[in-house]
Amino acid sequence: MLYKELAELYRRLEKTTLKTLKTRFVADFLKKVEDEELLEIVPYLILGKVFPDWDERELGVGEKLLIKAVAMATGINAEWIENSVKDTGDLGESVALALQKRKQKSFFGQPLTIKRVYKTLVKVAETTGEGSQDRKLKYLANLFMDAEPIEGKYLARTILGTMRTGVAEGLLRDAIAEAFRVKPELVERAYMLTSDFGFVTKIARLEGNEGLSKVTIQIGKPIKPMLAQMAASVREALIEMGGEAEFEIKYDGARVQVHKDGDKVIIYSRRLENVTKSIPEVVERIRKSIKPEKAIVEGELVAVGEGGRPRPFQYVLRRFRRKYNIQEMIEKIPLELNLFDVLYVDGESLIDTPFIERRKKLESIVEANQWIKVAENLITKSPEEAEEFYHKALDMGHEGLMAKRLDAVYEPGNRGKKWLKIKPTMENLDLVIIGAEWGEGRRAHVLSSFLLGAYDPGTGTFVPVGKVGSGFTDEDLIEFTKMLKPLIKKEKGKFVEIEPKVVIEVTYQEIQKSPKYESGFALRFPRYVALRDDKSPEDADTLERIAQLYELQERMKAGKR
Ligand SMILES: Nc1ncnc2c1ncn2[C@@H]1O[C@H](COP(=O)(O)OP(=O)(O)OP(=O)(O)O)[C@@H](O)[C@H]1O
């Protein structure tokens, strides 16, 4: 299949904002894909990606290298392309211009096929080590040599991860359902269980509803994590759970999903990225402590400080980010793993097993020690006992408690009421930076105030809910400016519009109802807490969640009165 057909799809997607139309375009395209291998590749390309997020492979190509490759392919100098980006505001557009401007196409050129593009990008990702930049450059230049302007535009955007065609996961799910006349809920279910749109598309096409309904979890494919809502108090949680619940310490760290298959261990982060290489000591401990040959378990990784007390979760994220001198970090930031769930053991999925049974299973398969533990818990009907446990958890320096329904099955990707969290403060929000303003005076060269958006899963867009300017150090602002500059879409005076990619956590004094933003909500005194690079923009808090938190806040206020 020709890459040009895919480029044409991107062009059509970009031209309309109508979700139904976009869904139809994607569905029509999927219907045309016959080849089985392509069926697994194309969904990712449509999302503007090459690999699923949980795949360890990365292209490792920045703007500079890409421009060099285009310069090499067209004979147009790199400076011209760089300058053109200042006018177009989009490297993809400038690549198309460069391809148009080139004198003549190679005589031996072959039209690009989707397979060739994909295979080349895989080679680019797998080229590492000494001299790899040069080899990547050659592979890419070869592709651009044979690319038409419209192909070059979208190829560049795919390589840089800035597709901007407005196709989010929800839209792709609906398009798969429409294309192969299968039930959207079954597509969703299969995706939540495997996080693999390639696999799901193939099953939908080849085996229809029946095949989709048989999809189950697999070692090596991460499962979307089950999430919690917030409760106003321990008592409220107990009532919601039907009078009896299991309470667990809510550890303040980073969630991990561990897949063990014999000696092979893969660890995925909260956003299901493969973080195995950054924490080898944890891998080693899992091999020893998790008894079954094959298992999938979940837990919270906590950085431990003096006297075994937990350190803020940012320390764990520092461990995830580190690629070199890992040994040094193992000593500097020791990690303890507190396991709280088991989803699979030796060929058997436990997803539909009630929580209380899973918990028993977990206790039986873990050989606990100083570094790997099963989350401390209390099963009770008594609000007083639960309160006492809550205060004990807080005194120990933990975040609060989780309450879990004893009979709850595991609901991948769902934020329902079967799990509730109880914390002493209002929930911080994780929001996406969608705009910014250049500072004044001493801060004129840095972005210093940021417009925050909540996610709207229905449309795949981000709706403004507030502006944050406090809580940043000078170094933070320099870092953010560096990070956000390549994501600038438009500049208007001091204000810049930003591609929604970066998630940050903020505190605030209150959520207010306000006509200021179309969302209907505004944050009062938001303050920056941390960069959440463990979350993707689609994991950010939604408008619906903000509305729920608003209700909760009002209930908490009423309780205090
Ligand atoms: N015992 C526990 N059981 C389940 N989750 C726990 C536990 N201890 C800590 N956690 C953490 O709490 C989170 C549950 O809260 P929630 O579902 O809101 O997730 P989240 O969106 O990642 O929020 P948060 O910012 O609170 O981590 C889990 O994702 C996990 O990281």
UniProtKB/TrEMBL annotation:
Species whose genome carries this gene: Thermococcus paralvinellae
Binding site for ATP: 248, 255, 270, 300, 340, 415, 421
Substrates-to-products reaction catalysed: ATP + (deoxyribonucleotide)n-3'-hydroxyl + 5'-phospho-(deoxyribonucleotide)m = (deoxyribonucleotide)n+m + AMP + diphosphate; NAD(+) + (deoxyribonucleotide)n-3'-hydroxyl + 5'-phospho-(deoxyribonucleotide)m = (deoxyribonucleotide)n+m + AMP + beta-nicotinamide D-nucleotide
SUPFAM superfamilies: ATP-dependent DNA ligase DNA-binding domain, DNA ligase/mRNA capping enzyme, catalytic domain, Nucleic acid-binding proteins
One GO-annotated biological process of the protein: DNA repair
PANTHER family: DNA LIGASE, DNA LIGASE 1/3 FAMILY MEMBER
Keyword entries, A-Z: ATP-binding, Cell cycle, Cell division, DNA damage, DNA recombination, DNA repair, DNA replication, Ligase, Magnesium, Metal-binding, NAD, Nucleotide-binding
Pfam families registered for this protein in UniProt: DNA_ligase_A_C, DNA_ligase_A_M, DNA_ligase_A_N
Domain of life: Archaea
PROSITE patterns: DNA_LIGASE_A1 (PS00697), DNA_LIGASE_A2 (PS00333), DNA_LIGASE_A3 (PS50160)
Similarity-based family: Belongs to the ATP-dependent DNA ligase family.
Gene3D superfamilies tied to this protein: DNA ligase, ATP-dependent, N-terminal domain (1.10.3260.10), DNA ligase/mRNA capping enzyme (3.30.470.30), Nucleic acid-binding proteins (2.40.50.140)
Enzyme Commission number, as recorded: 6.5.1.6
Keyword Cytoplasm listed: no
Active site per UniProt: 250 (n6-amp-lysine intermediate)
Name assigned to this protein: DNA ligase
Function of the molecule: DNA ligase that seals nicks in double-stranded DNA during DNA replication, DNA recombination and DNA repair.
Domain ATP-dependent DNA ligase family profile as annotated: residue spans: 328-456
HAMAP family with a match to the protein in the record: DNA_ligase (MF_00407)
Cofactor(s) listed: Mg(2+)
CDD domains in UniProt: Adenylation_DNA_ligase_Arch_LigB, OBF_DNA_ligase_Arch_LigB
GO MF entry, a single one: DNA binding
